Amino acid sequence: MREKPNVGGIQFKTKKELKEYTKNLLHTKGICRIDKTDKDYEFFYDLYLRKPSHKKWKLNIVNFEINQNPIHKHKIDNLSVIDINNEKYVISWNYCCDGLDKNNVDKLREACRTSIRYQIKETWCNSIKCFTCGKIKTDEEKFEVDHYTNEFCKIYDNFINQNKLKIPDDFHSNSTSQWTFKYENKDFQKSFEEYHKKEADLELLCYDCHRIKSNKFISKKVA
Questions:
Q1: Which runs of consecutive H residues, i.e. helices, occur in the chain?
Q2: pTM
Q3: Is 31 helix (H, G, I), strand (E, B) or coil?
Q4: What is the pLDDT of residues 96-131, one digit of tens each?
Q5: 69 in a domain, yes or no?
Q6: Rounded to an integer, what distance in angstroms lies between the CA atom of residue 213 and that of residue 210?
Q7: Could you give the number of structural domains in the chain?
């Protein structure tokens, strides 16, 4: 079943399109409070309820509020919900667009990682030396397969944004405690595997080169 989000009476082709619309709407409306008289109230109400755990609070919602991003002051993309007790809670409109709770987002990402293990193994078996320094692969030293330029997180995010299949919200935990897809979600799994195979450029690295690359990646993220 292909999910085409319908939010506030607006039909979207993909979640990516929904995210772009939401981002632009927040920017256009600017800093404001949205009550039931606002023409966009229904959109934000429906958007809020896309996140499964929010459904139990649907009768408590009174208003929404848009504010500046607390870190990036030039952005107007901070969305909050205000309840019947006048308590305000910041919500992730990105998670609402995805229709997933945070714990399910983590499980989904791990299930996607687990699903491409055979691609990792295939690269390891078909490579004979370190991609960076040329050291020959041996059983005595640890060699790892890594993404070269197109990182897994980028591939994953791009796939989720363009995906039109229903996103799984229930997973198996295998013998090594990793989350995996259930049989009923085999179409989604296959779709991700094919997308990853097309987009990924995998490389074999020796222990030293992999450690250096990992440290540079961490430093870049912190910076």
A1: 15-29, 41-49, 93-98, 102-115, 117-126, 152-162, 186-199, 207-222
A2: 0.59
A3: coil
A4: 998 888 788 888 999 999 999 999 999 999 999 999
A5: yes
A6: 5
A7: 2
pLDDT digits (tens, 9 = 90+) for 152-162: 999 999 999 88
Is 1 within a domain? no
User: Which residue among 98, 119, 145 closes a domain?
Assistant: 98
The residues pairing with 124 across neighbouring beta strands, listed in sequence order, are none
Residues 70 and 111 in one domain: no
Report how far apart, in Å, the C-alpha atoms of 138 and of each of 120, 133, 205, 207 are.
17, 14, 12, 11
Which residues, in sequence order, are CB contacts of 207 under 8 Å at separation 6+? Answer: 141, 142, 143, 144
Terminal C-alpha separation, the chain: 41
The dihedral over CA atoms of 214, 215, 221, 223, expressed in degrees to the nearest 10, equals -160
For residue 35, give Cα distances in angstroms to 81, 92, 125, 177: 10, 19, 59, 45
Single out the residue of 4, 89, 17, 104 nearest to residue 52, CA to CA: 104
By the 8 A CB rule, do 32 and 66 touch?
A: yes
Give the position of tokens 């990924």. Answer: 200
Over residues 165-209, the pLDDT tens digits come to 989 988 887 656 678 999 999 999 999 999 999 999 999 999 889
- Tokens 């969305």 label which residue? 79
Calpha distance 90→80 (Å, rounded): 4
Q: Give the pLDDT of residue 223.
A: 35
Asked if 25 contacts 40 with a C-beta cutoff of 8 angstroms, the reply is yes
